[in-house]
Amino acid sequence: MTRLIEVNGREDILPKYRNTPIGLLLEYQNLNKTFSAYEKPRMLIGMCMDNRKNLWVPDNFAYIIRSGGANLFYHEFQVSYAIGVGGVQHIALIGHTNCEMVQLEERKDKFINGLAINAGWEKDTAQMHFENLSPFFEIGNAVDFLVAEAGRLRRRYPKVTIAPLFYNVVTNNLEQIEVE
After folding, report:
1. Ranges assigned E (strand) in 7-144
2. Would you give the distance in Å from CA 135 to the centre of its chain?
3. Cα separation values, 136 from 54, 85, 87, 101, Å
4. In whole angstroms, how far apart are CA 97 and each of 33, 53, 68, 92, 143?
5. Gap between the Cα atoms of 136 and 160, Å rounded
6. What is the CATH number of the domain that holds 93?
7. How many other CB atoms are found less than 10 A from the CB of residue 105?
8. 121/127 Cα distance (integer angstroms)
């Protein structure tokens, strides 16, 4: 069973994330922790490209990769760079409420028409583009996808702490995802 855990106080941060960059991220975003100065990134944040999300973190605190649905599969070189060159040992994988990478098929016509109008594509080319690539980017249930993607990344980078988190676009708060 998967549950979302709110962070309304420092004591709500799961013990495995306390006193880590992930805990600091939760404190900055949800608890308005005063910023500290950073000379180098402490973590990597992988988050959706959605324009409604804005994290409250200090400069130089994190590498940030934005990708539809927080899907980092096609960004593994950048993830590896942050770990190998940047030395990060913590990754926050952040999805959010009302993600448009969920049920992409519902937006197929809008996608096709938008490419025809805004990019000058022929509709049949836009349709083929959608049909060929949307299966790679459809995430299904956002929370379930984050749990699965965190698991995939943990297998790939076993010494790195990876936290699936969920952003509420109404409250602008992060919630922890716990699998029981």
Report:
1. 43-47, 62-66, 90-96
2. 19
3. 25, 28, 29, 10
4. 24, 10, 13, 16, 9
5. 25
6. 3.40.1050.10
7. 11
8. 10
pTM value?
Answer: 0.94
In the chain, the number of structural domains is 2
Residues contacting 11, CB < 8 A, separation 6+: none
Residue 52's SS3 state is coil
Domain that holds residue 92: 2-100+141-179
Shared domain check, 121 and 45: no
Q: What are phi and psi of 144, to 5 degrees?
A: -60, -40
Calpha distance 134→111 (Å, rounded): 10
pLDDT tens digits for 88-147? 999 999 999 999 999 999 999 999 999 999 999 999 999 999 999 999 999 999 999 999
* Residue 77 tokens, joined: 């070189």
Closest by CA to 16, choosing from 148, 150, 171, 141, is 150
| Token pair recorded at residue 114 | 């938008």
CB 105 within 8 A of CB 135: no
Sign of CA dihedral 71, 68, 163, 77: positive
- Which run of H or E residues covers position 112? helix 108-119
Residue 103: CB atoms within 10 A of its CB come to 12
